[in-house]
Design a protein that fits this description.
The complex is a heterodimer of chains A (about 375) and B (about 300). Chain A has 16 helices and 5 strands. Chain A is an alpha/beta fold and about 375 residues long. The longest helix of chain A is centred in the last third of the chain and has 25 residues, at about 265-290. Chain A starts with 7 loop residues before the first helix and ends in a 6-residue tail after the last helix. Chain B has about 300 residues and is an alpha/beta fold. In chain B, about 35% of the residues lie in helices and about 30% in strands. Classes of the chains: A alpha/beta (about 375), B alpha/beta (about 300). The interface between A and B is medium-sized, with 27 and 30 residues.
Chain lengths: ~375, ~300
């Protein structure tokens, strides 16, 4: 198969045709534009990583002026809503299990007495780890609440307790230890998710649509080459990707006040490479799928690990080796690191080479696979 | 027509799922000919056409199309062949003009605008050029498809049931157009179900079960089949019909308006059967006639079982 025997006239023919078809297919075009807006609103606003008003159950085995002051501070805090105060552990545990409470704050018997003696008694916070992001933010909040609640009490006769280290110890129990995810962290990464979703989805039906509508037969009856079809069919969507990038960047700076610390040129190179890799991934799917529905399903098959195993949702290094291996094979994993490094940490080309090269390699592999899989006949 | 052979394929074979759809198929088509391709549904007509233009790879067999190897040089063949698919296969969300321009670019044609303009005028599509292809009626879609497969001035046209679902006037216009191309030296291989179209062809290949059963100049086919025919008219036709169908020597009974044609290969047996009917129903008029194409094709079609049964 001669791959490089290509005619730009034919590439341009397919390119132009795709543009016109994209323009005529207004709903799809609208979705591609609305997708970044929707996700920004959902992830940027609705999904609050600095969550407030989390339900907490307090297990009180002690009743004294200091613990009551702490309780009052918890009540006053907007981070936590105390839904119940119990004496025994069973009821509190059940509330945590059922999800009625996200936190269990347990103050043990003799807490106050030992506190006054300077024995640094323990206070237990058990967090519902099924929502690690929510838990992470509030655990920090409880520590600050405790600090500010006890500060006024540790005056006068108890003044010796105000010196560091704190006169008490907060023990946090959580099954999962999430990274501190914030909007700064999530919005740049969102760019990767949006691009993966739309670019893969839109090109995954590139060939299946032609086969389903019967136009593939006509296309194959002309002297067009596989590479010409691939380039012509995928490049129009670079424009769509560029629009999405612009939307997210504008929102990131204006709405979320996220700085853009690093090299913009390095960012452009990385984002272009990433868009191409996604287009090729979608195109590869379209060579395998027989119907548009299958193509969609395969896209979601890619999309799920892209969200879960890329470091978007969970810290990459905390994942088991096999999950990290899958993540490394996904273009988004590398792009997430690149975009966070550039935007937040002020990275330039030299800093991102370690992820830029794997990204290029993935792109090349996907494109080759897609070309080899392209069926030149109707067999 | 000249002596030059445009399609020369030998022993083409193709199976799908273990079933031989085309079996050891030979075909020779001279330049400028209009070659008709007949056969019941599922007989392998489409598969054969697709193999000829390189859309399907034959399992075995060999041959040349326009002098190029059908197995190895399919790109060169594609550049010189116009293929009109059975189902409309242009872009319904592109306008007529955009579709033609797309195809013209794929063939890297020079003077693209002029060619598209000319194609639009030639086929009477100029006024509708901005209309979306999906909004066209069957006849107009067919004109557009023909324009699209003629835009690169191919030497060979492969038409797969081009007039299915098209009204008689449009079909007539279509065939006039094919005749004009033929006069210019364009060779046409066309599959059809319509008898009136079959008789327009210079030669006919009849295929069933993936095998070619007849391949002859259209005018020679009646003699080749050797079908005898009687016309029976009058009343009561229904009883006569029932009687004839039971009779030996009658292989085909077909109604033609108020009359009925009984045909068979054994002329003597057929005559006995018809005369017996006349004895039973003296009011009927009987008359020996020449077997027409209509009878011959009905005979051929009814004689072959569907390939997929």
């Amino acid at each position: 198969m001669k791959l490089l025997d290509l005619s730009w006239s034919r590439v341009f023919a397919v390119f132009l045709k795709e543009l016109v078809q994209m323009r005529r297919d207004r709903p799809t075009f609208a979705i591609m534009i609305m997708m970044p807006v929707m996700q920004l609103v959902l992830f940027g606003f609705a999904i609050n990583t600095d969550p407030r008003h989390l339900p907490a159950v307090v297990e009180m085995r002690e009743d004294g002026p200091l613990t009551r002051a702490f309780l009052a501070s918890l009540h006053a805090s907007s981070y936590i809503d105390i839904v119940a105060i119990t004496q025994g552990p069973d009821e509190a545990e059940a509330m945590l299990r059922s999800g009625d409470a996200t936190f269990l704050i347990s103050i043990p018997e003799g807490f106050e007495r030992r506190l006054v003696r300077g024995e640094r008694p323990q206070m237990l916070i058990a967090a519902d780890a099924s929502d690690p992001v929510a838990a992470g933010g509030a655990i920090g909040a409880i520590e600050r609440i405790a600090q500010s609640a006890f500060a006024p009490e540790f005056q006068g006769p108890l003044g010796y307790l105000a010196r560091p280290p704190p006169a008490y110890e907060i023990v946090v129990h959580r099954r999962y230890n999430p990274a501190g995810v914030s909007a700064f962290n999530i919005v740049p990464a969102l760019l990767g998710v949006i691009l993966t979703m739309t670019m893969v989805l839109i090109t995954s039906i590139a060939l299946t649509r032609e086969s389903e509508r019967g136009t593939m037969e006509n296309l194959l009856a002309t002297p067009i080459r596989p590479l010409e079809v691939m380039i012509g069919k995928t490049t129009p969507y670079i424009g769509v990707g560029a629009i999405q990038v612009a939307i997210v960047l504008i929102a990131a700076t204006l709405l979320f006040r996220i700085p853009f610390a690093g090299s913009f040129l390095a960012f452009l190179v990385a984002v272009t490479l990433f868009i191409f890799a996604n287009l090729m991934l979608g195109y590869l799917i379209s060579t395998a799928a027989r119907t548009q529905l299958q193509a969609m399903q395969m896209t979601f098959f890619i999309f799920l690990p892209s969200i879960l195993l890329s470091g978007f949702m969970f810290p990459f290094r905390a994942m088991p080796d096999w999950a990290q291996a899958i993540g490394t094979a996904l273009p988004i994993t590398h792009f997430l690191r690149i975009v966070r490094e550039i935007m937040l940490k002020g990275a330039g080309f030299t800093d991102i080479v370690g992820d830029l090269l794997p990204l290029a390699l993935i792109l090349l592999t996907l494109a080759t696979l897609a070309l080899l899989r392209f069926r030149r006949t109707l067999d | 027509m000249s002596d030059e052979i445009v399609i020369d394929v030998r022993g083409l074979t193709k199976s799908f799922g273990g079933r031989k759809v085309v079996d050891d198929f030979d075909l020779k088509v001279p330049r400028g000919a209009i070659y008709g391709f007949l056969g019941p549904n599922g007989s392998g007509k489409t598969t054969t056409i697709r193999m000829v233009c390189g859309l399907l790879k034959p399992e075995s067999g060999e041959g040349e199309v326009l002098g190029f190897d059908v197995l190895k040089e399919s790109l060169k063949i594609k550049e010189r062949v116009g293929y009109m698919t059975q189902k409309f296969s242009l872009y319904e969300d592109l306008s007529i003009r955009e579709n033609l321009e797309f195809i013209a670019r794929l063939y890297e044609l020079d003077h693209r605008d002029d060619r598209v303009d000319k194609a639009l005028v030639d086929l009477g599509l100029a006024e509708r050029q901005g209309q979306l292809a999906g909004k066209l009626s069957g006849g107009w879609k067919q004109r557009l498809a023909l324009a699209a497969c003629m835009i690169h001035e191919p030497e060979l046209l492969l038409l797969d049931e081009p007039t299915a679902g098209v009204d008689p006037k449009a079909r007539r216009d279509f065939w006039d157009q094919i005749r004009r191309y033929s006069a210019q030296g364009v060779t046409t291989l066309v599959s059809t179900h319509y008898m009136d179209e079959a008789v327009q062809c210079d030669s006919i290949a009849y295929i069933a079960y993936g095998k070619k059963l007849i391949d002859a100049p259209t005018g020679d086919i009646p003699a080749q089949i050797g079908l005898s025919c009687w016309r029976i008219a009058g009343r009561p036709l229904m009883q006569a019909h029932a009687m004839l169908e039971q009779s030996e020597g009658v292989e085909l009974v077909a109604r033609f308006g108020a009359a009925m044609h009984a045909c068979g290969k054994d002329a003597a047996a057929l005559e006995r059967a018809v005369r017996a009917v006349k004895v039973a129903q003296p009011h009927l008029q009987i008359e020996k006639i020449e077997a027409g194409f209509e009878e011959i094709f009905i005979y051929l079609m009814s004689g072959s079982i569907d390939n997929f049964q």
